[in-house]
Amino acid sequence: MSIILFKVILIVLIFLISLGLAAYATYGERKVAAFLQDRIGPDRAGPFGLLQPIADGVKMFLKEEIIPTVSDKFLFILGPSLFMMTALMTSAVIPWGTPVSIGGQNFNLQVADINIGILYVLGVVSLGVYGIMLGGWSSNNKYALLGAIRASSQMISYELAMGMSVVAILLMTDGSLSLNAIVESQGEGKLYGFINVSGMNWNVFYQPIAFIIFLITAFAECNRTPFDLPESESELIGGYHTEYSSMKLGLYLFAEYINMFISSAIIACLFFGGYNFPGIEYLSNHLPQNVMSLITFVVLFGKILFFIFFFMWVRWTIPRFRYDQLMRLGWQVLMPLAIINVLLTGAAITFFGN
Amino acid sequence: MQLTNRSKVVTKKEMSFMEKLYLPAIVSGLSITIKHLFKKKATLRYPEVTREFAPVYRGMHVLKRDEQGRENCTACGLCAVACPAEAITMDAAERKKGEENLYREEKYAAKYEINMLRCIYCGLCEEACPKDAIYLTDRIVPSEYARDTFVYGKDLLVEKMDDRIDVSKRKKSYHID
Q1: Of A30, A37, A224, which to mutate for an interface test with B (greatest number of B Cβ within 10 Å)?
Q2: Within 13 Å and on the Cβ side, how many CA atoms surround A154?
Q3: In the predicted model, is pLDDT for residue B101 greater than 80?
Q4: Residue A203's pLDDT is what?
Q5: N or C end of chain B, less CB within 10 A?
């Protein structure tokens, strides 16, 4: 099997998984919201309401498509497409599991193991701002514009703290930006140098502050509560997608859930060992390679699902920040904290070795 | 001037460092919400499960028959007099020979109409009735498009023999036997 064919299959698979997961994340969100509020949630379409996302999708497609006459039509259509595209592109560098062997040949379960992996993710995520900004601007609507401006300033401010928190991780993996290398480094060695559990050398145990900063900024990047000011429906009627209808609105909402999925995957890869789990060494010595790939994939997916649940859990717990509080948190708290964390990590590595 | 001793002095004190961190408060909030995940749900799955009405619920009226299936109503008109909304009208008629199995007493209501749009479901007709004939039940008057369809005649009000309406709950709430 040629490498190209394998990559194409992998890309299509990841594409389908992302879309399917995003669809079911909407269902999950409604269910989690309902359960946290002592309700039942959607349960009419199919058993336990499992067909609800399909019904929602059909509804989205059949709805009337309205493009405001005063809008810039090209940009109006480009906005959601760009947002969706950037959301899907990020999944390219995530290592989904240990390599599989097909016909005696090893293939990495990763679309592209580029050596600037995490930088690529940050770069593509910041491109996502264009999707929101274009959508909000081209709608020619005050609320949409306000939402878009809020979104772009928020995402740009939080990207800095996010980048700085990642730098602390990079210092620990000998400066490699490749996500594969970061994940692999968490599978080797002993935790704190003496706790001998294979596959538990996770960064979160060394970098709790970086983890919390990354988590908070990930919430802000995904425009999730408590940082959902861009779309705050109670004050901005939906923010940047006020004027959108039908599947273009669907694309925005979908892309948000894909962003959530990707953020969860990145959090899992950077801080929770990616596909590593305690006992991975023992199992990989006793099980065939392809079974191992499947197990590692399931483990990574479990971590991702937990973080998606965590995103929803937080959403239905805390209220929205005020805009000045949001900016103060980003610039005056998270940013200096991240820089101090980088300095401390650097000092610790210089003076105490690894 | 202090009017009551329940008044509280409002202070806006500076938040402590732990409070400014927000995180402890968020964690306690998260633990509260996760507890609700496992709580009993308050929802009733409506079309399959219906909530029971309270015994004092006053819905659509019924004109009762006795055990032998004879109509209780004697068209005395006390319900119409008692009705504050003037929703009830009736025409009385004398019972003919051979109709003893239809009407309990010598006089009966040939026509008995309640205008459901006028009715305020106060239940005074029920209290006024000396013959145990009219009761408000836990049935709901269905919605219609035309006004005249809301004037319910005997065809809708008198209970059917094969579909007796249980009013024991209402009886309990009024009569102390």
Answers
A1: A37
A2: 30
A3: yes
A4: 79
A5: N
Compute the nearest-CA separation of A269 from chain B (Å).
23
Residue A232: CA atoms inside 13 Å, Cβ hemisphere, count?
Answer: 21
Backbone angles phi, psi at A189, to 5 degrees: 75, 180
**Spatial contact of A240 and A248, defined as CB atoms under 8 Å apart:** no
CB contact under 8 Å between A35 and B29, yes or no, is no
Contacts 24+ apart (CB under 8 A), B166-172: B167/B62, B167/B64, B167/B135, B167/B137, B169/B55, B169/B138, B170/B55, B170/B126, B170/B135, B170/B136, B170/B137, B171/B135, B172/B55
Work out the pLDDT band at A353, boundaries 50, 70, 90. Answer: low
SS3 B54: coil
Nearest CB to B42: which of A36, A39, A313? A39
Q: Where are the domains of chain B?
A: 61-174
pLDDT for position B175: 53
* Cβ neighbours of A316 in B, within 8 Å: 33
Residue A1's pLDDT is 66
* pLDDT given at position B170: 76
Given CB atoms, is B6 within the 8 Å cutoff of chain A? no
Length of chain A: 354
Asked if the model's pLDDT at residue A354 lies above 60, the reply is no
- The sign of the dihedral angle between the CA atoms of A285, A196, A277, A120 is negative
Is residue A235 over pLDDT 80? no
The answer to whether A86 and A133 are in contact (CB under 8 A) is: no
Kindly report the CA angle at A353 between A182 and A184, in degrees rounded to 5? 15
Query: Is the Cβ pair A40, B36 closer than 8 Å?
Result: no
With a threshold of 0.90, does the pTM exceed it? no
pLDDT of residue B11 exceeding 60: yes
Kindly list the distances between the CA atom of residue B10 and the CA atoms of A48, A302, B25, B112, in Å, as whole numbers in the listed order: 49, 48, 22, 65
Look at residue A200 and give its three-state secondary structure.
coil
The pLDDT score that the predictor gives to residue B112 is: 92
Partner A contacted by B30 (CB < 8 A):
yes
- Residue B46's alpha-carbon distances to A1, A40, B42, B49, B143, in angstroms, are 56, 12, 12, 5, 19
Of the listed ranges A25-39, A88-102, B112-126, the least confidently predicted one is A88-102
Longest CA–CA separation in chain A, Å: 67
Asked if B26 and A212 come within 8 Å (Cβ–Cβ), the reply is no
What is the fold, at CATH topology level, of the domain defined by B61-174?
Alpha-Beta Plaits (3.30.70)
- What pLDDT score was predicted for residue B2? 75
